[in-house]
């Protein structure tokens, strides 16, 4: 896509030419989860993010009524530049459109939340496996038995994403991803999925199952789909999110998210 890869990717998404998951798309640019809420709920949700920085690291918050993420992708439009959205009304899913201009209201506030797709390029650079990219599917994501810290009306379970690795690879992946706190940072759990309340890794709550090979363990990172599980539990009047795995691509280089 050339030097303007992030902008070109967003333009293709806006035209409807790309409607699938964004893992591996526009490599080198930070990807973000999306949450849109009425302004009346926005402060409670911001407090929820502050209290739960692993699953909800905030990259940007827009002004009420503005769909432009001016700090991370000037000129972009959060109503059209995500491949697929998910609309929740009173906690119930109500469609997965590719454009939410018809849902837009002047009181909506948009939150961009860090996404673990951002650090996958760093994992691949170290020859670590990213199985969902290898298999060309969406990353598997699971609701857990761990509760987030509540804030105002918002409460619910932690959601995690999973990438299988050998124990040695998991150690190296932990070292790498610790440097990316703005996009979920280090894993929250390695190994026995039952300790997270996950009964069957072959049946993710979001995304697609991936192959776990002999000698590999599941490695779990906090996931920005957590707000969608929170929407189901907290039932706000309206919440618009990305469809799991279908992220917003910013103009921010991945390297800017890494600490020394």
Write the layout of secondary structure elements.
Layout (H helix, E strand, L loop, with lengths): L4 H10 L14 E10 H13 L6 E4 L23 E5 L2 E2 L14 E7 L2 H9 L5 H5 L5 E7 L9 E9 L1 H11 L11 E2 L26 E6 L3 H9 L3 E5 L5 E6 L7
Antiparallel strand pairs: 1-5, 1-10, 1-11, 2-5, 3-4, 3-10, 6-7, 7-9, 8-9
Structure notes:
The protein is α+β, with helices and mostly antiparallel strands and 260 residues long. Helices cover 22% and strands 24% of the residues. The protein has 6 helices and 11 strands. The strands form 2 sheets. Strands 1, 2, 3, 4, 5, 10 and 11 form a 7-stranded antiparallel β-sheet that branches. Strands 6-7-9-8 form a 4-stranded antiparallel β-sheet. Strand 3 and strand 4 (92-93) form a beta hairpin. The longest helix has 13 residues, at 39-51. The radius of gyration is 17 Å and the shape is globular.
Could you name the key traits of this structure?
single chain; 260 residues; alpha+beta; four-stranded antiparallel sheet; 11 strands
Q: Treating each run of at least 4 consecutive H or I residues as one helix, how many helices? A: 6
Segments where pLDDT lies below 50 for 5+ residues?
A: none
Q: Specify the helix fraction band.
A: 10-25%
Radius of gyration: 17 Å
Structural class: alpha+beta
Overall residue-averaged pLDDT value: 94
Counting DSSP E segments of at least 2 residues, the number of strands comes to 11
Indicate the overall shape.
globular
The portion of residues forming beta strands comes to 15-25%
Q: What separation lies between the terminal Cα atoms?
A: 29 Å
Which H/E pattern describes the elements? HEHEEEEHHEEHEEHEE
Task: Characterize the biggest β-sheet.
Answer: 7 strands, antiparallel
